[in-house]
Amino acid sequence: QPNLPSLPPPPASCHATKPNMLNVHLVPHTHDDVGWLKTVDQYFYGDRNDIQHAGVQYILDSVVDQLLKNPDRRFIYVETAFFYRWWKRQSSSTQQTVKQLVNEGRLEFVNGGWCMSDEATTHYSAVIDQMTIGLRFLNETFGACGRPRVAWHIDPFGHAREHASMFAQMGYDGFFFGRLDYQDRMHRMVQKEQELLWRASDSLTPPTADLFTGILPNGYNPPEGFCWDQSCDDPPIRDDPDLEDYNVDDVVMRFLTIATSQATVYKTNHIIMTMGSDFQYENANLWYKNLDKLIHYVNAQQANGSKVNVLYSTPSCYLQELHRANLTWALKTDDFFPYADSAHDFWTGYFTSRPALKRYERISNSNLQVTCNQLEVLGGPASRQGPFGEGESQTMKKAMAVAQHHDAVSGTEKQHVANDYARRLANGWQRCQVLVSNSLAALSGSSAKRIYCDNLNISVCPLTESSKKVVPVSRATREVRRNRGFAVNELVFQVQAPPLGYSTYSVSLRLAGPPPASAQPGAPTVIQNKFLRVTFDPDTGLLSSLSNLETKQSIKLTQNFYWYNASDGNNLESNQPSGAYIFRPNSSTPFVISRTAKTETIQTSVVQEVRQRFAPWVSQVVRLHGDSRALELEWTVGPLPIDDGLGKEVITRLDTSIKTSEIFYTDSNGREVLQRKKDFRPTWNLMQSEPIAGNYYPINSRAFIKDDVDQLTVVTDRSQGGGSIHNGSLEIMLHRRLLYDDVRGVAEPLNETSQIFPEGLVVRGRLLLSLDPPSVAADTHRPLAQEVVLQPLLTFANGDLSPNTRLEFSGLQAALPPAVHLLTLTQWDKDSVLLRLEHQFQSWESKVNSQPVTVNLQKLFSTLDVLGVSELNLSANQWKEEMMRFSWTPQKGTGHPHLSVAGLHGLKLDFV
């Protein structure tokens, strides 16, 4: 049995407040990026201080020392990736001391995930995993008192509804963040709506996904003039009247002015102040000595009639006071994207920044979920210790957890740090490969060496080099591969694999096989299979229409590639350039790369391809598989030319005959879908100052446009930014190469090169298009998106298999219903596994699949005998029936009735 806390920790650790006064909650904290300007390990050790002075090990040393000197002091800590590193290096006596500080509420963990995840570019499955790994460590180390009650995302650049939904389902009582669109903040300050109730799902019955949300007053910094870190220049409190520059009266007066001003834009007689910032408290004595004095001298004024009471506090103590106030709170049902910090500074570039890293993170997630985690369970102990050595999944889990950080997969780090994130993922996958090989050996009975061909996209697999004609390799692929293999063909054949299982195919040369692929220059006027018909304009070589043959619907569809000229910051309205974070095009009209495409057509019995070449640095394969309901667009972009001195942001745009009324839809972290409207925000009257960047939203797995008759859905293979700037159109940004830094701290332009591509990064990806009536579109795009996120793993082996080899295996007794997705299957401890099942349809999107579903867990698995089932919260650190959250009352009615669908269920299975 996992050691789960039974009851929430008692609130006795909170300092008393005064009901007839303004209570100012001072929250000492440090914000420790799990990689940004330095790597995660450089930050931990305090290495490379020539880049940035920051050493997390010294912060924790210093804070613990200072907390022991005064029991009134408080501190919160957030990033478990760092705390775990520090904890492992402490003596048992220090560990006991820290446990006592936690038990007494003097050191409080908030958020508690391995990192503070990005919210725009992360997939929900990876976010759940990184939260689980951090919270599990805290739970197993500190018990109930170590369980965070508050989610804390003070730095991410915009906030996703699905994140709030996940936090609610993880048992958090509330959520605090720092960054908010400047117009939204002004509106909320006037309305006193900086604290609100976020209804984070339109499918889950309230209050399941309701989350109290607070917007912090100064981002996450202290009020101006009150930073006492060694990195700050603000004067200390000089309280000896016999010495020069006595300043207590001035400090108290300034503090009272700031506090009373802040109180005018919040709703209760409690306000919060974040006393700390990036990597602060390395010398915690400076902070605490001055905070002790501040509290003493401000509260001393109460004897003179002051109505301000200052106290050391934590986010959970502050939240408890807001809950006790028993007020009603403004209700929010949309999200906090896009985020702008001024009129021309929209943080919508990072939705696409570092597209290769974004894809590698997504592939790594697939490898972890589909193969490493699941095969560790299905192969049993033999997967961890077998013929190929010792295999383990923990390295990969931690690498993936680090990659969710808001300066990791977001693409907003320095280049050497991006390299480090990728290296960690590669190392994790190497460890997983041993586990996968062992597991497949145990399940199949064959110990033949398996080859993984990790670089199949840019090289050739040593097992498959052949000159026999199958499908000729495209010119673009040859150019991408450069000198890493000279295969001239690609082998294409149809396969089927059972759910949660594998299939084995034998490939050999035959004297008389199927007819070879036919290749001819030029585009056909049409390619089609039994589901889709695709036409091309013979004059331009571009797409011209898409038809669904089953539903007899057809739309005009043209698609092309364009680039926005990135602002270099030297114009009259603003000095803001485009950069890793910011998207700011010089013009609202992008440049077309070419109005025509040179084309070549490949026809086989299983796939049809039209290869389009737009420029030496842009090409595409339009691909239709024989049995597919989706049209595949495989794009290759790069190296982006910069000889002209112009930064470029490359998009593909789909222009259709669909009447969209300036509305389109995007997913939230790969899960629920939200409506977006051009130049519009649901909760305030928008003054639009950037007509392109201000209409970009994050796309994690899909976006679509629709009218009453037709819905065109685009499924992406990584997180990207996009928008619907014109009626009937959908554009997606694929790649960015910029020549200026956008002055948000990275101090590096986003200009990616590598040893292989010294002249600029080349990126390849896929978009999958489906055309359906809106009422049934989700029945196509939900499973399609899951197939892209969780793709099957290819392994190769030499020669003939032994006759006793098991060629096919399924870990399930029967396939799950279409509405149910097996999200997590991972080894928890020796005799139990963690299973997460999710209903993947929203309540409104499918007549057939938006219904509650029952699954018999006893008869689910073919290789596991289930002895017992216990339901957990989403992060697996609390029993579901013991999850007690604060209840909050919205100002408005509760809205329409909800079906109990789109839910995520975490289960612990005990088995033989």
Automatic annotation (TrEMBL):
GO terms for biological process: mannose metabolic process. CDD domains: GH38N_AMII_LAM_like. Residues 345-425 form the Glycoside hydrolase family 38 central domain. Pfam families: Alpha-mann_mid (PF09261), Glyco_hydro38C2 (PF17677), Glyco_hydro_38C (PF07748), Glyco_hydro_38N (PF01074), Laman-like_dom (PF21260). The keyword Hydrolase applies. Keywords: Disulfide bond, Glycoprotein, Glycosidase, Hydrolase, Metal-binding, Signal, Zinc. Gene3D superfamilies: 2.60.40.1360, Glycoside hydrolase 38, N terminal domain, Glycoside hydrolase family 38, central domain, Golgi alpha-mannosidase II, domain 4. It comes from the Eukaryota. Its EC number is 3.2.1.24. Its cofactor is Zn(2+). It catalyses: Hydrolysis of terminal, non-reducing alpha-D-mannose residues in alpha-D-mannosides. It is an enzyme of class 3 (hydrolase). The keyword Glycoprotein applies. GO terms for cellular component: lysosome. GO terms for molecular function: alpha-mannosidase activity; carbohydrate binding; metal ion binding. Belongs to the glycosyl hydrolase 38 family. This is Lysosomal alpha-mannosidase. It comes from Seriola dumerili.
